[in-house]
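Attaching the record inline, Q. Sequence:
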Amino acid sequence: MAITINSQPSSYSSMHSPLYYVVTSDNTSETNFKYVCDIYVGGNLVARLKSFPQPVNSKGIFDVSRVVRDYWNSYFKPNTTPTAFSYITSDIYVNYEIKFGEEYDGTTYLNLEELDAFAYNFYPDFFSKDILSPYRSEIPYGQYITNRNKLTLVFDKNKLSTQRLFVPYLASEQNTDVDIKIQVYVRNGSTLTTYDGPIVTERDLFLIDVSPVALNTYLGTSAITANTTSYDVEVFDENVERDFVRVTLDCFPKSESLNLHFLNALGGYDTMNFALVNRQSRAGQKKSFSALEYELNTSTSVMDRFNSNNVFYGGAKQFWGEQSISFKLTSNWVNQTDYTWLKELIYSPEVYLEWNGYYLPVNITDSAWQEKKNYQDKQFNLELNVELASKVNAQFR
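Structure, as predicted:
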């Protein structure tokens, strides 16, 4: 008995695309031969797949993506107390084990060949860099995993202590603890001051909050104030400078600025601020019944239309009402890179509206996105319609 693994997915593969394994055996001529593929997650057998040999080359082909992605769950879990490392997780991937065997003559032979693998929560795009191989992507270890312009992040100066700003970072090593810290370069006019943060030893995905309140908490000092013009947030991973983003402070209209946090195409959580006119609207549904217009007055034996408090009886009575809350959001002016990045927000399956320190799940009701070009469209922004996932019920009657 001999199983050979001919090919397997790359080490950084998407669980939302096929995860093909191709194997061969020297026993395919045996009676009723089948290849066997056991899938383990967390040390537990979760699925057993079987495949007849291919007619021409006798190989066994397995796509395990449907099984693997059943074991992915949401990992948006920001710390309620603002700090730079808001949340750290390995949930960006599913670590699974494959064990191949074979079956013939009524007997199953298991665990003849095995391997450990990872499937990540990104999705490939045919218009990404690796267009000829859309099921694989370059490994983005040791960098912020976002397609936004890293030099043009903007923060509302009116909300220094209340709003959040997330940028995801993927550690330089897979499934391995790394020493990581943040260095912040603060510009107050022409003055540049450098602040060093403490080291954190963790692994995989770091949800980094680059808002002023989070960085000040992490640094242990009020490094970023209303006098700050901009600041850079640089990640040091294993004592190596890896990547940075630049945040500019600006004055947006008070009470208008709203944040959407969303799962981006690379598997991290990004933040987009909508700083221009944002309008709330509500659509309601109602149900009612008809009550009698008159009731018997037991004291006078007369049919009255109203009671002793002069409240009329009868008519249509509403007994149920439901409100759907939606917002029409308008972003500030954005560049072509950020406008292209924002299509990931429109098609993201996981979006949250930040509201008074809480994160309300919302659904994007827009379904179309059209590319913009700097040389043709000049300046542009994004208008977006979102609807709260939860309904508001009026009093039941």
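The domain at 3-77+94-120 is CATH 2.60.40.1930 (Immunoglobulin-like). The first strand starts at residue 3 and ends at 7.

More tomorrow.
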